[in-house]
Amino acid sequence: MITTEVTFDELSALMKQAAGITVDPEELKEAAESPFDTFGLDSLGLLGIVGELENRYGQPLPPDSERCRTPREFLNLVNSTLTAGA
Amino acid sequence: MSNRRSGRAAVTGIGVIAPNGMRTDAYWKSVREGLTVLDLIGREGCDHLPLRVAGEVRSFDPADLIEDRFLVQTDRFSHFAMAAAALALDDAGLGGEPAEPFSVGVVTAAGSGGGEFGQRELQKLWGKGSKFVGPYQSIAWFYAASTGQISIRSGLKGPCGVVASDEAGGLDCLAHASRAVRRGTDVMVVGAAEAPLAPYSMVCQLGYPELSTVDDPDRAYRPFTEQACGFVPAEGGALLVVEDEARARERGVPVRAVVAGHAATFTGASRWAESREGLARAIRGALDEAGCAPEEIDVVFADAMGVPEADRAEALAIADALGAHGTRVPVTAPKTGIGRAYCAAPVLDTVAAVLAMEHGQVPPTPNVFDTCHDLDLVTSRARPAELRTALVLSRGLMGSNAALVVRRGDDSAR
């Protein structure tokens, strides 16, 4: 059973690392239903975050993960996949 | 915007990020003084390579001028280009959000793309595996990256393009932008910036027989002399704002120069003897388009490859195209103080030509003190002269030749 979830904190840090986008984790959480592009994150940026998470957690994420439109949708998919795969 | 058009492409903005100066005034001061900034390459991972001397842009801190997302997503050559484009737009009084984004286009020339970014990602590929390569690799090392990123960063949605026609593409893109303006685009942001001083990029250049591997910065790049031993590479570049002359006057901004004529030819990679005819034809074509007699050329900014056979071909081409005037007209090559920044080299020369006309001074050719060719080469110090028309020449290692005629703007700022 996986005990750690990908949090808004971690997503915020990944947006910075993979795409150079600065967004406060609290703001990200509050605007979790907003499309990624409102934060300035494009599709290549999300693809980079997916790749980094796959490397970090050592398991593949579903193809749909890079098509998620919002932070909430993305974290739900990622965490359900990581939990199921553990 | 009014429909009144002159059909002439005016230079109204200049932005420079060069080894000898950040911003246009610093660049001009160094060029006018004949300052040389060639030095041993200090970049990490480069000191074991036989290419020792180059013109590095050392005072450029991209974080000062470029937002984080572009630092992560783009290469150094695009950082230079974005910074220079912003300076040029500010100079033209067009900084900030464009009022009519679909009326402003971008065209750049590129010779080597994003080598530093590419090397970093390729090291991840071979060191850790394909899953560790970042997706921005797909766009960052692409020749077209700078055009795209300038248009995105500045919100410009007019016609965009990239000229990949060898080093002389720096002049070809200015012609391309001028044609776009004549066809009806209000404003074009145009120029080139290169960053070829990362280890991977440097190794790619080692195969060029024209590259100077002399390790003395004062002796490594001395075109038109008996000691000529090849050229020294450089990084950096310049972007210009070009718009219709009548539109510029309506806006009330100074017309710094007019792009009057251009022509390009191709004579084959490293076939320097043949470049004589190619370059002469390019000069004649540019003069024709400009409606300019050879005697009207007041100064020539030479390509100055630094290879004896190429230098001879250039000197003869100038004589072929300009006749007796070719041996009397002042010729200069300020790039001997900074090196050749590939596609950006002739753009920096065009900027120097505009500034020379504005200031009435022909800048000197650093590190060159005599010439073995029949040219009036300006050396040691700037020469005062009334300059109305300048000819800029460029050749590429792959065989492209180009010539550009630039006329002084009437309401010169200084």
Description:
The complex is a heterodimer of chains A (86) and B (414). Helix content of chain A is 56%, strand content 0%. Chain A is built from four helices and no strands. In chain A, α1 (8-19) packs across α3 (43-57). The radius of gyration of chain A is 12 Å and the shape is globular. Chain B has 414 residues and is an alpha/beta fold. Chain B is globular. Classes of the chains: A mainly alpha (86), B alpha/beta (414).
Describe the structure using short key phrases.
heterodimer, A: 86 residues, mainly alpha, Non-ribosomal Peptide Synthetase Peptidyl Carrier Protein, Chain A, B: 414 residues, alpha/beta, Peroxisomal Thiolase, Chain A, domain 1, 2 domains, 12-stranded mixed β-sheet, two-stranded antiparallel sheet, globular
Q: What's the helix and strand layout?
A:
The complex is a heterodimer of chains A (86) and B (414).
Chain A: H1 8-19, H2 25-30, H3 43-57, H4 71-85
Helix pairs in contact in A: 1-3
Chain B: E1 9-18, E2 21-22, H1 24-33, E3 39-40, E4 53-54, H2 62-65, H3 68-73, H4 76-91, E5 104-109, H5 115-127, H6 137-140, H7 145-154, E6 160-163, H8 169-183, E7 187-194, H9 199-205, E8 236-244, H10 245-251, E9 257-266, H11 272-290, E10 299-301, H12 308-322, H13 325-328, E11 330-332, H14 344-359, E12 361-362, E13 376-377, E14 383-384, E15 389-395, E16 400-408
Parallel strand pairs in B: 5-6, 5-7, 10-11, 10-15, 11-13
Antiparallel strand pairs in B: 1-2, 1-8, 1-9, 3-4, 7-8, 9-16, 12-14, 15-16
Helix pairs in contact in B: 1-14, 4-7, 8-14, 11-12
Quick description:
Chain A has 86 residues and is mostly helical. Chain A is 56% helix and 0% strand.
CATH topology title of chain A: Non-ribosomal Peptide Synthetase Peptidyl Carrier Protein, Chain A
What is the oligomer described by this structure? heterodimer
Overall number of domains of chain B: 2
For the record, the CATH class of the largest domain in chain B is: Alpha Beta
Parts with pLDDT < 50 across at least 5 consecutive residues of chain A: none
Count up the helices of chain B.
14
Domain Ketosynthase family 3 (KS3) (chain B): 6-408
Family (chain B): Belongs to the thiolase-like superfamily. Beta-ketoacyl-ACP synthases family.
Keywords (chain B): Acyltransferase, Transferase
Organism (chain B): Streptomyces toyocaensis
